[in-house]
Predict the structure.
Amino acid sequence: MAQALFSVPLSYSLRNLWVRRLTTGLTAMGMALVVYVFAAVLMLDAGLKQTLVSTGEADNMVVTRQGSVTEVQSSVDRSQANIVTQFPEVATNLEALASRETVVLVNLKKRETGRPSNVVIRGLDHQGINMRRQVQVIDGRLFRQGSNEIMVGQATAKQFAGMTIGESVRFGGRDWRIVGHFDGGRSGFDNEIWADGEILRQSFRRTTYSSVIVRLMDPGQADVFRSRIEDDPRLPLKAKTERQYYEDQSETLSRFIRILGLTLTVIFSIGAVIGATITMQAAVATRVNEIGTLRALGFQRSAILLAFLAESVFLALVGGGVGLAFASLMQLTEFSTTNFQSFSELSFGFYLTPGIVIQSLVFSVLMGVLGVWLLPFVPRELPLWRPCVQPKLRPAFALQLAWRDLRSGAMSLMLAAVVISVAAIVSVGVLASRVESALFADARASLGADRLLVSDRSLPEAWIDAAKAQGLRMVQGSQFPSMVVARGSNLLVSVKSVEQGYPLRGSLQVRNAQGLRLNPPLLPGEVFVDDSLVGRLGLALGDTIELGDRSYRIGGIVEFEPDRGMNFVNISPRVLMRHDELLASNLLAPGSRVRFRLWLGSDDPKALEAFDKSMEGRIRAGQRLETIENARPELRDALDRATSFLALAAMVSVLTASAAMALSGRRLGLLYTQRLAVMKAMGATRWLLLSYWLGLLLGMVVLAWLVGTGAGSFASGHWQPRA
């Protein structure tokens, strides 16, 4: 008997979904949009991890310099590389299975936009290609050792112009002929260009490697190999498994995708739950007699409740299935953005996993359950209204009616739908502004200022006068290669002289006797040096080095330098010294390869624009003015892509909220039909009724705008993107 009493209301409830096709369709569409966004975000994150993590081999180790985040920032000299490859954990086949690699970034033009973007150029030795099992040549052939031939990953070939086999690409002061395309197996290698390592180092005048890739005899010996490197005082290096290394490379971008996507998903899901609640409430309101009849026939309250719950869950599953179906089509597309770790172009696709399917369906079911759970909190009809026989509707009385309706909950769902729509748009706008601020902050830090003037001769007085005229903050300095002598050994270094106040943007992190410090002052007779210089010369804090005609005490170890580039000079160990001690050291002589620098900063964008205009026509050969746009174009591309993604998210939020507003507006209109009819019968004119209805909607919209703006600003204010 219980079986029969349960099956009738269940089948009846499911059939009623078809009877209310409009309401059902709008609710299912709202849920489908939410599930689509939820699944797409998870697929994008999974695709990113699949691309980068699959780049690594389980038995390969990546050895880089301590303190470096990417291979581009790393430097491993030849003696250190030889020590690493001789460790007993390294597999051998007549010789050690190791690849000494050099990684540089070059700017190439995108195929579609013609705008420049960074591409990773990887220089390998004869072991390097064999150590990447997933890489296969799909067109052409391998490059020949000792030649200017290169191979291009298939993602790079699609994204950038001039990547056809037989064409030549110019970088590093020479032309490189493309002889093949390779497939990296949907890994990060697809976004690279491969060349012979020795020729690449000659072109970029490198004397060190970026990294050493070694293959272990047993993957289980990774911890032993890592400890051996960390315990060796000759090696200021660190080692990670190749998969862990590339997983770390994806962390920043992955976190950005997850936080932004899930934040928007939460906002959208509230709108979908409102739609489900409206649908279920409409079902209850229109079937009161039928529900009473079922109760009279002996059906239990729990059976009827389960029937409505099954109806809501079924509706949610339909919407979830549709959303998943559309999300699965995203696997046919490819997404291209800037890797926030290396600032190189990275292409990856959407990747649908069984786990994402399960999570999306569970998420849709939860929305359906919440839609039924909220039913007791939704009023089924408007409270009784005192008849008004007055020919005019006084504003005070209209406000009283509106406030009474609001407190009763009659307009709660409509108000909630509008609040969700406004909150979604506001939060997306605030997030876009914060993302832009974070990226611009990183771009300014990469210059050390808002503007950077570089000259191969002494800084012209006209430049300084122009900066003073606009009230800009200034820091002067220079950069050049030189030799450091310590304990009977010498080392080629990159000397950088700076005035107090450097950097104007970003933070110089230095470890001294007091610990890690931000922007510490350089004392007279003191220098800051790289940890690589300390390790290679066997020095420590407080030791003395000879630079030019003077001796300097090591006052700190540079942990992070915001505007350190990746050119030949900057790849050498860094020595920071006071600019006012440069002449006394006699480091500069005729023929010195020195570049004088002028860092400029201001919190007034108009002052910076005026300075840019004043510099027009003043820049000569050997001089340049660097700004965010011309120094870091990849950040502009990343910002454009992020803005496009946020605009798409805003559109989806509006569609979701619109579906909820359409459902709640339809329900509100039905509830107000009786009231308006009574008012008409009591003598109210059409204009009076129209004024009351429009005033009610206008007041509700203003209230929803205020609440939604506050909610959106509060929600987005709790996420601060890091540059």
